[in-house]
Structure formats: structure tokens, C-alpha cells
Amino acid sequence: MAGKSKILIIGGTGYIGKFIVEASTKAGHPTFALVRESAVSDPVKGKLIETFKSSGVTLFYGDLHDHESLLKAVKHVDVVISAVGSLQLADQFKIIAAIKEAGNIKRFFPSEFGNDVDRLNAVEPAKSAFTTKVQIRRTIEAEGIPYTYVSSNYFAGYFLPSLAQPGLSSPPRDKVIIPGDGIPKAIFNEEHDIGTYTIKAVDDPRTLNKIVYLRPPKNIYSFNELVSLWEKKIGKKLERIYVPEEQILKQIQETPIPFNILIAINHSVFVKGDQTNFKIEPSFGVEASELYPDVKYTTVEEYLDQFV
């Protein structure tokens, strides 16, 4: 087998991006990051960039609005992974244009890292946020760019520390608010594992032009099951308050941006069951923990131990 692919990560200083950069260097890929000059002097991002440098990452200075800097970075690598945040999703058309012009990219991973946007029952405003990701997918396919879409479902770090309770920084100890009836199952993946599975997929022919779903069996829980697991850990029953769907839809309409988007995403997952209400067919997808049984992923149960 040829050497490991050279990987360019765009959005590497972002929430999930830094885990992908770390996984890439750990797996021995020549790793490159496109960073803005201004990020170097940013107190948080500057520290991250120093960490990148010390772990052997090569930096390209530039951004998505500077076509020449983007093109130069793209021409240097084999694989491009975008981890840009929600406000920059539409800027990925510029990455597609650069990949098309460069002509050397073996695989493009657009910024997905959430629910499968082609299989959703989301309401506004989440629906519009997902529409941009859908448009990016269709453009990649129309341009004939080889791709992998990573559907990593929920970031454990967003939802488990509070058990998805608004305003809490640790899981509840007395009462818990449950959207809908608490029966649909959701999937919670630890961020290092999302990075690891993403990088594993880079040179794998089985993931080419496919959606890679992260559905590790021990991380699939309904809201009711999650609460029961937490109750077992703390040795105490919580008061469960169920919020009917009509009330959630009303809440979405009355809540300001960006919090209404979060409620709408939770509605799609916890009420509609959008992470688990379809079967992964070999025609469009593969499941990461089946492809890579050697990855020792962090289970939801292990993750919650830190809060007991």
C-alpha cells in the first residue's frame, strides 16, 4: 500500500476540527491546516495552533475568501476535510471550486458531523441550517468529486454533561425535562472518537462515495434509557417531566436565534427519532464501529462516570 494520504483540514481550530487534526497526526498522516493569520494572535486559537505545530502539523495561512491561498493548500494534499462551523457552511462552495480547479484531490469530507441531512424530519429553523449541507452534497456529487460524508450524530460534549437540560452544566439530580415521550433512540459519540473514525475512513475504499454513520452499539439510548442509566449511577430516582410535541413546536417559535435551532435539532432527534429511524443500506452507507472494531470508543456509560 502507498504511504498515508496527505490531509488538509479546514476549520481545524473549531469545536470538532481540533479532534480531527489530533487524530490525523496520531495516525501518522502528513497533516496540514489552513488557518487565518488573525487566529495566531487569538488567545484560544493561538494556543491551539502552537499545539498543532508541536505535533508536526504544517500550517497554511489563508482563508476561504482568498482563492489563491486556498488553491495552494489544496494542491499540496490528497484529501481535504472541512470542519467549518455552521455560519461558514455556504463558504464550502469555494472549497469545491478550488478542489475542481486543482484536480488532484482523492477525497473530500465536507463539514457534516451531525445528523444525516438527507434523512431528516426537522422543522424550521433547523431545516434551513440542514438545507445548506444538502446543497453542498448535491454540488459535490454533480461535480464528480470523490467524497465521504461523516454522520457522527450527537457530540457527547454538547449533550451528556447536562443530559440535554437547558442551562445546566452537570446532569440533573432532582428533575429532568424529557422532550416528547422519551422513546426514540439517539446516538452520542465522544469527540476524540469522531476524529478517530473520520481519519480511519480517509484511505478506506469501503467509505468512498458513502455516508459513514457512527452508531456504536453502546452509545445508542432513548431519553428514558439515558435518564435510567443516570439514576442508576447516582442511586436516586428523578422526577420526569415530559413535554408534548405541540409545546416544543411552540417553544421553537418563541425562542430567539440560535437557541431555537438547538431546540429544533433536539425535536428532530428526540421526538422524530431522526438519528435511528432508518436502516443503513449498503447502497449509500456503512457503519464505523463495524468497519473499525479495533477502535475502543468511549461509551455513554463511561462518559457519564465523570459527573457522578
If you had to describe this structure to a student in words, what would you say it looks like?
With 308 residues, the chain is α/β, with parallel strands linked by helices. The protein is 40% helix and 17% strand. It has 13 helices and 13 strands. The strands form four sheets. It has a five-stranded parallel sheet, with helices on both faces. Helix 10 packs antiparallel against helix 11. The protein is globular. The N and C termini lie far apart (46 Å). The relative contact order is 0.13.
Features:
three-stranded parallel β-sheet; alpha/beta; 308 residues; single chain
* Helix fraction by DSSP (H/I, runs of at least 4): 25-40%
What is the overall number of helices?
A: 13
- How many runs of DSSP E, i.e. beta strands? 13
Would you tell me the overall average pLDDT? 96
Structural class: alpha/beta
Give a short summary of the structure:
The protein is 40% helix and 17% strand. It is an alpha/beta fold.
SSE arrangement:
Blueprint: E1 7-10, H1 17-26, E2 31-35, H2 37-40, H3 43-54, E3 58-61, H4 67-75, E4 79-82, H5 92-102, E5 107-109, H6 126-142, E6 148-151, E7 154-155, H7 156-159, E8 175-179, E9 185-189, H8 191-201, E10 210-213, E11 220-222, H9 223-234, E12 239-243, H10 245-254, H11 259-271, E13 285-287, H12 288-291, H13 300-305
Parallel strand pairs: 1-2, 1-4, 2-3, 4-5, 6-10, 7-9, 8-12, 10-13
Antiparallel strand pairs: 9-11
Helix pairs in contact: 1-8, 4-5, 10-11
